[in-house]
Amino acid sequence: MTRLNAEEMVLNMGPQHPSTHGVLRLKLKTDGEIVSHIEPVIGYLHRCFEKHGENIEYQMVTPFTDRCDYLASMNNAHAYAMAVEKLMGIELPERVEYLRIIFAELQRIASHLVAVGTFGLDVGAITPFIYCFRERETILDLFEMASGARLLYNYIWIGGLAHDIPPGFVEKAYEFLDYFDDRVREYNRILTGNKIFIERAADVGVMPPEVAINYGVTGPNLRASGVDHDLRRVQPYSIYDRFDFKTIVGQGEMGTVGDCWDRYYVRVLEMEESAKIVRQALDQLPAEGDVQAAVPKKIRPPKGEIYFRSENPRGELGYYIISDGSNVPFRVKMRSPAFCNLSVINEIGAGWMISDVIAILGSLDIVLGEIDR
Predict the structure, then answer these.
(1) 3-state SS of the chain: helix, strand, coil percent to 5?
(2) Residue 234 burial by CB count (10 A; 0-12/13-18/19+): exposed, middle or buried?
(3) Least CB-packed of 42, 110, 112, 149 within 10 Å?
(4) pLDDT by residue (tens digit) across 229-278?
(5) Which residues contact 154 (CB under 8 A, 6 or more apart)?
(6) What are residue 157's DSSP bridge partners?
(7) Which domains does the chain show, CATH number per domain?
(8) Which pLDDT belongs to residue 6?
(9) Which of 312, 310, 314 is nearest to 217 (CA)?
(10) What would the mean pLDDT of 165-179 be, rounded to a whole number?
């Protein structure tokens, strides 16, 4: 940090602070209420995920992926499983592919509900936070019904799933989708068009597309800046090419393209698109199929390396794996989208007031377990 002038001071926000969304410390260089420099200090939640991954067998890595982005556990495990499956050349049963998409998109909705609700809370709106968590609980009921857990699932395995969905799961999933359509409209009524919320979020923390690209920002934050890039579209994996859905791009409806409001609203609209994907996957779900038919008895990929990336709720999640032919990975590296997204905060946050920095950070939707992987 640069030398301070007589009227400047350094203010520590966090690491134990509700608006940092985890154990993150922000060193703010301020002149009164105006912030001239932001230095994020990370490492308080170090998981040692990558080093763990190099000392245990491939299938034992899966539960550790759940614990990185703990708001998108299904998406993390899905990407890791696909990376190892591609390395081994495993072909999955159709029923497994559809069930994985159902769980991945339900998880995306649950993650965005946390992002939308906590962002509202950051700028002073308590009711949307309570409503969003109400809907998230319904999704977690479905996850608990299938896996027995509500946060860390270990459900998506290399080559398949831990077990098939129980009777009644499909019917309850349809019930949630029918119920959820009205709930999104409710969020729009109480928050999206709220005058106070617009004043707090519109034209604040604008991220131009070239800045987003240069910093490696991906996911909803990149699309909110007007960049039409979604891996499910531009580089389809699994069976995403079979579904009809739109890529949501920021339009600057309430201010400038790429502001806090756009980053919020992109996630709201993405929840609707994820619900469409889940409904299509339920409609097309094969009635039969052994979800463990392709699970290998021994996971020992041939010598080689692979980088596989997927679109998780926070952006491009990538796994780089090197195999030496044994049952333990030689190297495991995770590309954390939240880490890259956080790196842009000084670029878009300097020059704003302290209260605006809280809104900007909340709009980035970070998870420290993934950043400190």
Answers:
(1) 50, 15, 35
(2) exposed
(3) 149
(4) 999 999 999 999 999 999 999 998 998 999 999 999 999 999 999 999 99
(5) 62, 63, 66, 77, 147, 162
(6) 160
(7) 9-371 (1.10.645.10)
(8) 64
(9) 314
(10) 96
Q: State how far the Cα of 84 lies from the Cα of 86, in Å rounded to an integer.
A: 5
Q: Is the pLDDT of residue 1 over 60?
A: no
Q: How confident is the model at residue 317 (pLDDT cuts 50, 70, 90)?
A: very high
Termini Cα distance of the chain? 25
Q: What phi, psi does 331 have (nearest 5°)?
A: -150, 135
In the three-class reduction of DSSP (H, G, I as helix; E, B as strand; rest coil), residue 138 is classed as helix
Residues 306-310: contacts with CB under 8 Å, at least 24 apart: 306/83, 306/86, 306/87, 307/83, 308/79, 308/82, 308/83, 308/86, 308/237, 309/79, 309/231, 309/235, 309/335, 310/75, 310/78, 310/79, 310/82, 310/231, 310/237
Q: What is the DSSP annotation of 25-45?
A: EEEEEEETTEEEEEEEE--TT
